[in-house]
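Is zinc ion placement plausible here? Inputs below.
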Amino acid sequence: MIMRSRFLFFCFALCSLVLLSTGCNSTSSKALTSVVYDSISADPAILAPPSLLMDKLDSLKKGLLYFPPVDSINKIEPKVARAMLKDSIYRELKKKPKHIYLTFDDGPLLGSLAIDSIVTAKGVKSSVFLIGKHAKMSKMLSRSLQKYLENPLVEAYNHSYTHANHRYQTFYSDPTAAYTDFVRAQEELGLKHKVARLPGRNIWMFGDVKRLDGRNGGTTAEMLHEDGFQVFGWDVEWRINGRTGESEQSVDMTYKAMKSYLDKNISLYPNNVVLLMHDDMFQLPKAQHKLAALIDSLKQHPDYSFEFMTDYPKKY
Ligand SMILES: [Zn+2]
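Reply from A.M.:
I modeled the complex. Tokens:
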């Protein structure tokens, strides 16, 4: 009722303006536009650049759209109504905290001890998706696993026992064998969280969310999900050559990609962004400094917080 009165008052004021300015009794949208623009021209704002005048005109037009009486809602194009709703949701989301998930795959490997030290020094939560057989390859890797398991800033999850031996299509063509491979990793690594990421696949299956990547692996994910696992993929990937320490994407590019995913709401879940990295990226000091620099850039935002995948997604 209030909105209707407000609209009627607005219409009355606008019509008066039309009649006073031109004596025209037409209320077609074309006439309204031209009259409102003329009335602005008579304003001292005539000295303002044309773009400012158009802004003023736009805001008047938006005013008409923003307070529609109930029976005029149907006259708004569905496309415009959807855009308005999307805009208002985005405006609300922008005001809320943002959540960063640093995830490291394929450990324990050379690079794991450095990751453990850096995230500890920076005081940020991290998620590591581990491969069962890697922990048995050497004493150092076994020690790396223990460091991860004992670090309160690190949560360790399942990335299978064999990593499909890098033959993904074959691995997932036998979902029962693939599922059993995950069960073996869960037991031998002594993992307490039922969280998994499928090797070579960006598949999400948690709660009632199910997102496949067009390749096989969906049945394995379903078997894990039925067994109580949350299966997570990633939004942004950062690649560094572990042997040279050279990045395919610089620290700045990776930071900007993450920020853009948050700002434009293009991650799987709004205001939550999952970054994929690999443990073997951080073998050399050069690459380790890049990881520290990326964390520093993200920490500059007071509304960004670092979370474990077990808390994904943070909702309001
Ligand atoms: Zn992997």
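Short version: The chain has a mean pLDDT of 82.
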